[in-house]
Structures are given as structure tokens and as C-alpha cells.
Amino acid sequence: MRFITLLILLFSTTALAGAPATKVAILMFDKVQIIDFAGPYEIFGQAKFDVYTVSSDGKPVTTAMGLSVNPSHSFADLPPVDIVLVPGGNVQKIMHDKSVLNWIKNRKNDSEHILSVCTGSHILAQAGLLDDQQATTFHRALEGLAKDYPKVEVLHDRRFVDNGQVITTAGLSSGLDGALHLVAKIQGQDAAKTIAMHIEYDWDPSQGFVRGLMADRYLPDNDYQWPEDIQFERLAAFGDKGQWQNRYLAKTEATKEVLQAVYVKAMKAHDQWKSIPAEDGKLSWQATIDTQRWIHSFWLETDADAYLLHQQIKRD
Predict the structure, then answer these.
(1) Which CATH number fits domain 17-212: 1.10.10.60, 3.40.50.960, 3.40.50.880, 3.30.70.890?
(2) N or C: which end of the chain has fewer CB within 10 A?
(3) Cβ neighbours of 250 (radius 10 Å)
(4) Domain extent listing, the chain
(5) Residues 283, 281: Cα–Cα separation, whole Å
């Protein structure tokens, strides 16, 4: 039995080695998010895919965090590919570039798979590739994608959405899941699991963690009329499906009472949130959302010449 198993494994490995490598093109543009392309690049490289980076003119691009990247190809000299990866980042400019949109539309005709990461889905949507399909994106961009592209069914509860040819993933690290999913489709589940273990990534194809389902999605989306001089620095933002907390350092000449009044006024604009008695200096409200009761609290602490601003939401 061991001999037969060894022969099967040897035959499979030999056949795979003799097959032409899957070819991947990764779209590069100014303000692209590093992990959106680098994470999948690692996955595809581990799978022995041929990976190319491409920009419209082949010239260097600067990522969202200032890293300079030299694409290996321009649109004009890129060889035929099997997979196109469209990462996200600051996509406001690139998603309206006609040469990029035309290139993506043409790749739909000659590529087997198109994978977006994070807000790269907005580029695909702008090119019309997501019409009448399901999709996901970065958790803070879900509502925007649904509003701007009503023909797209936007899903909040997935790390990736597979429509067959077109696959979209949620934010940032979700690109690893999308890339592993593609490897599994092409080389099999065992190959994808092996790569995930090699790079020490806790891959969960059942998509147990979905950023868009965390409790901060229930935080009131208010238009706060903060004093013009206020400056914010985010210190913490974390939680799970049942609770979330944000903490900011806020610098302003305004008094604590003024800041509290701004927040109370903003909360009054939301009928579902009802004020409840304050405890320990925390201003609090409650609301029933999706049959669950939630408590939202806001409080300030003085920190030298600034304030520590706290937001918290938790299931009651």
C-alpha cells in the first residue's frame, strides 16, 4: 500500500512539474495598498505560479505607504495570463482611468480568473464586471459599494465571494484567503493547506473571522460638528461581534462640556438610539438592532493638554 501511495504521489508531482505554470498579472498603481498585492504575491509564488506586476505604462509606482515598486510589464508588453489580481488602496483616481478600465474589461475575455482585494472591487464594479453578481470589499467601504453600484449584491458576511470567474475579497489580509482559495481551485485543497502552513497563516476556508461582522458596524454614523481646531489621533480600535471600543487622543482649545454637547447633539439625530442615565461619567444610549439590544457609551478623560475620547458599544 505504501508503495502504491508513493507511486501516486510521484506521478502527481511529475505531472504537475510538466504542466505549464499558471500565470498571474498583478495590477499596480500609485497609492496601492502593500498587503493587498504582496500577500497574494507570496501565496502565488509559493504555488510556483509565474507572477508579473503590471501598470499601464510600466513605470514605477508609489504605494500607499511610500514604497516604490517597479512593475515588470506595461499593458502593451504583458504576456497572456490566467489570473488577474486587482488590489485596493486609494482607488479614487485609478478607478476612473479609462485605459485601466478597458484593460480589465479585455482581461475578462482572455483570463480564467479575476481576483480583487479590498477596494479593488470598486475598480471591477466601475468596469462593469460585478453587475448582477455578489461581491464584498473593505469593511468601511461596504455601504459605499452598495450605494454607488446598485446592480451589485454586496455581502457583509464573507471574507471572499466566488462568482466563478470573478472573485472579490474583503479588506487587506483577506487577499490571502482569496489567493489560497484560487490555489485550491487550481491545484487542490491540499496544496493550499500546505502553503498556508508553510507561511504560518491560520487559514480557515469556512471564513470564521469576518471584519464586517464586528460590533463597530452598529456604532452610530454621525456627522459630528467638532470644533474646527480639533485634531484626532487614533490610539485603539478593537473588539469582536459582541463589543467594540475606540479611543482617540483629541487636541482642541474647546472645553470638555463643548465636546460632550457636540456628541449629544449628533446622537439626537438618530431616532433608534435613546438616551439612558449616565454612569461613571459616561454618556450612554440604547437601541435594539437586528433583535439585539445594544448600549453605546461616550466619555472623555483629560490627558495633559488633550483629551482621551472613548467610544464603546456592547451587546446588552
Answers:
(1) 3.40.50.880
(2) N
(3) 18
(4) 17-212, 215-315
(5) 7
The pLDDT of residue 3 is 46
Q: Cell 510556483 maps to which residue?
A: 48
Region 123-127: what's the mean pLDDT?
Answer: 98
Report how far residue 156's alpha carbon sits from residue 146's, in angstroms, rounded to the nearest whole number.
10
End-to-end, the C-alpha distance of the chain in Å comes to 58
Report the C-alpha gap between 217 and 139 in whole angstroms: 9
Which of 195-227 are b and which e, b meaning 16 or more Cβ less than 10 Å from the residue's Cβ?
bbeeeebebeeeeebbbbebbbbbebeeeeebe
145-170 pLDDT, tens digit each: 999 999 999 999 999 999 999 999 99
Does the pTM surpass 0.90? The reply is no
Cβ atoms 307, 259 nearer than 8 A: yes
User: Nearest-5° angle of CA 194, CA 198, CA 203?
Assistant: 65
Look-up of cell digits 467638532 = 226
Q: Which three cell numbers, joined as nine digits, stand for 294?
A: 445594544
Beta-ladder partners of 25 = 52, 84
Q: How many residues does the chain have?
A: 316
**DSSP codes of every residue in 251-307:** E-SS-HHHHHHHHHHHHTT-TT-EEEEEETTEEEEEEEETTEEEEEEEEEEEETTEE
